[in-house]
Each structure stands twice: as C-alpha cells, then as structure tokens.
C-alpha cells in the first residue's frame, strides 16, 4: 500500500527554508508571508511525526531527520521542474546555459551554428551573466565560468587558458606604416582592461611592455573598461591599441577587423571552464553540449611557449610566461 504523501506546498516550504536557514528569506522566495511558511513546515512535521528544524540563535538548522531526506526532496523538485518544462515545450528540448557575457558575445555565439548542425533537435537558451548561478537549485543546466577552476560541488572541465596580446584596427593608423616592433606603440592610445580578481593577477600594459623590454610608452593612460568584450569593441572601432584576450579577439582577427602586430603574449592566471551539477553530469543533453564545447575549444591550437624575448634576448624569470602562438 502506497504511503500517503504530505501536501506538496509543505514539502516545498521545508526545502526553501533549508536553503536559507530563515523563514523570512524563504517567504520572500515563495512570495508568501513568513507566518504562512512557518505554518506549512509545522504541518509537514505534524504529518511526519518528526521535528525537521531546530531553532538556533540565528535562524534554524536541520535535525538529523530533516537532513536525511533533504537531497532526495531537492532531486524530486528538479524532476518536477523538468517534467513541467517537457509538458510545456511541445516536445522541444531546450538547454539553458549561463555564460560570461564577454565570451558569450565574442566566442560562443559565432560558433553556436555548428552545435545546431550537430544537434538540430536541441535548442540552446543562452543567459549571459557574471553571476555564479546555483546549478543545483535553478533551471540553468550548464555554466561557462572564468576563473581558477575551483568550483565545489560541481563538475568542472577546462576549455582553455586565457592569453593576452596587443590588437588594433587597421583604420587606427590611417595610412601610417604598420607596427613593426613594440617601440612603435609610443604615441598611440592604449586601451585597458580594468579588472581586479579576488585571487591571482590580471596582467596589464605595464606587464606586457616590461616583458617586451620597451620603455618610453605611457602604460597608464587611455580608455578603460571592466568588460573584455568592450575592450575588443573599442579596438575594432579604431580607438586605440588594446591588450585583448585571445578568445575574444579570434573572430575579429580572422575577419580582418583587428590586427595582431606582435607574437609576444602573456598567459594569465585564469581559464574558461564548463561546469554542471555532479548529479546531472550524465544527462545526455548536458553531456552532448559539454563534449561539443570541449571540441570547439580544441579547434584553436594551444599557446606555445617562446624560449626568448623578441630580438633573441633570454627571457629570464618573470611573473608571466612568454608565449608565441604564431599567426
């Protein structure tokens, strides 16, 4: 005989409270009053004959009984969410991907047509965001993140390391001779990425010019942007020479909108990673998109370390490795 289940609203109220450790915060998510949430959880405890929450000085904590079924409950709500999505999609499969806005615009979108060619029955909803979406408790299926690769509770697979080098639009020089050596940057406007990561170091023009052995270039003046895609767009529009990310500049270099004058590049402390919840890693649609992303990342040759500075001088020991990616 099948056991009678408690009301769905009471189960939902308990699951939300368990995430927030607060009836008030749970009420805000559920768009009801805190009193209503308390009543729902109390009804669930009465139905089960077990205490599920324990009051603390600040908020609530789960009892052993509450903790015992919590993950199963969360998985069940995810299944319900997936079922509702399937019933309302008319048979259409949609994969929701949260990705860094700059990479979304400059690298992922130009390649999505190849995914559609391989998987015509699977649509992609791309959500560009810097927010670290909770992949275990949201309707987002996958994330593409930029950082060190440490994402507790998630499956994390590296796509590629990031490297930076100078790029500019051909129209910037307006008939002047092209840049032949790093010293030719003297007198030209520079475009900067203004970003301070929580860990690691983001190299700037000072680092690149030092690595190139160049002096006499004003490395601190010029346009500044906190978004790498805007740095690239400013360079495309001819507003200066940008120290741009390879991943964001590739399409513009291939189309001739940007020129890479020097082979010297700096490998950063960061990389792009595709991440998903461990509990969903084996789902066919998620696995297919991850495989495709990794294959796309491998289409570009990895950076090759140079053995010397431009001009043949020894590189020596520096904060950043010297790179030569070829052109």
Write the layout of secondary structure elements.
Elements: H1 8-20, H2 23-30, H3 34-48, E1 53-55, E2 60-62, H4 64-88, E3 93-99, H5 101-108, H6 112-118, E4 122-128, E5 142-147, E6 154-167, E7 190-193, H7 205-212, E8 223-225, H8 228-236, E9 241-245, H9 246-255, E10 264-277, H10 284-298, E11 304-305, E12 322-324
Parallel strand pairs: 3-4, 3-5, 7-8, 7-9
Antiparallel strand pairs: 1-2, 5-10, 6-9, 6-10, 10-12, 11-12
Key terms for this structure?
single chain; 327 residues; alpha/beta; Arc Repressor Mutant, subunit A; D-Maltodextrin-Binding Protein, domain 2; 3 domains; ten-stranded mixed β-sheet; two-stranded antiparallel ribbon; 10 helices; 22% strand; disordered C terminus
Written account of the structure:
The protein is α/β, with parallel strands linked by helices and 327 residues long. The protein has 3 domains: 8-79, Winged helix-like DNA-binding domain superfamily/Winged helix DNA-binding domain (Arc Repressor Mutant, subunit A), CATH 1.10.10.10; 93-160 and 271-298, Periplasmic binding protein-like II (D-Maltodextrin-Binding Protein, domain 2), CATH 3.40.190; 163-268 and 303-324, Periplasmic binding protein-like II (D-Maltodextrin-Binding Protein, domain 2, 3-Layer(aba) Sandwich). Helices cover 36% and strands 22% of the residues. Strands 3, 4, 5, 6, 7, 8, 9, 10, 11 and 12 form a 10-stranded mixed sheet that branches. Strands 1-2 form a two-stranded antiparallel sheet. Strand 7 (190-193), helix 7 (205-212) and strand 8 form a beta-alpha-beta unit. It is elongated, with a radius of gyration of 26 Å. The protein starts with 7 loop residues before the first helix and ends with a strand. The relative contact order is 0.13.
């Amino acid at each position: 005989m099948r056991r009678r289940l408690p009301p769905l609203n009471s189960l939902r109220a308990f699951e939300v409270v368990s995430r927030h450790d607060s009836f008030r915060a749970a009420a805000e998510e559920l768009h009801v009053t805190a009193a209503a949430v308390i009543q729902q959880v109390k009804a669930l405890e009465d139905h089960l004959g077990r205490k599920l929450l324990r009051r603390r000085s600040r908020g609530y904590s789960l009892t052993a009984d509450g903790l015992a079924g919590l993950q199963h409950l969360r998985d069940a709500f995810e299944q319900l969410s997936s079922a509702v999505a399937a019933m309302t999609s008319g048979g259409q499969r949609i994969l929701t991907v949260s990705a860094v806005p700059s990479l979304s615009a400059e690298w992922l979108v130009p390649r999505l047509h190849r995914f559609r060619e391989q998987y015509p029955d699977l649509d992609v909803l791309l959500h560009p965001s810097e927010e670290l979406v909770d992949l275990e408790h949201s309707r987002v299926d996958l994330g593409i993140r930029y950082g060190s690769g440490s994402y507790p509770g998630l499956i994390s697979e590296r796509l590629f390391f990031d490297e930076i080098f100078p790029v500019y639009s051909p129209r910037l020089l307006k008939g002047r001779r092209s840049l032949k050596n790093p010293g030719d940057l003297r007198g030209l406007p520079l475009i900067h990425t203004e970003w301070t990561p929580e860990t690691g170091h983001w190299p700037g023009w000072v680092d690149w010019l030092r690595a190139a052995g160049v002096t006499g270039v004003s490395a601190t003046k010029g346009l500044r942007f906190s978004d790498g895609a805007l740095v690239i767009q400013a360079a495309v529009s001819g507003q200066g020479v940008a120290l741009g990310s390879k991943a964001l500049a590739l399409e513009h270099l291939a189309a001739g909108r940007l020129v890479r004058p020097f082979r010297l590049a700096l490998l950063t402390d960061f990389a792009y990673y595709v991440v998903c919840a461990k509990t969903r890693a084996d789902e066919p649609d998620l696995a297919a998109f991850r495989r495709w992303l990794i294959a796309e990342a491998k289409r570009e040759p990895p950076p090759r370390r140079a053995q010397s500075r431009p001009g043949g001088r020894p590189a020596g020991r520096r904060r950043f490795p010297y790179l030569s990616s070829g052109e």
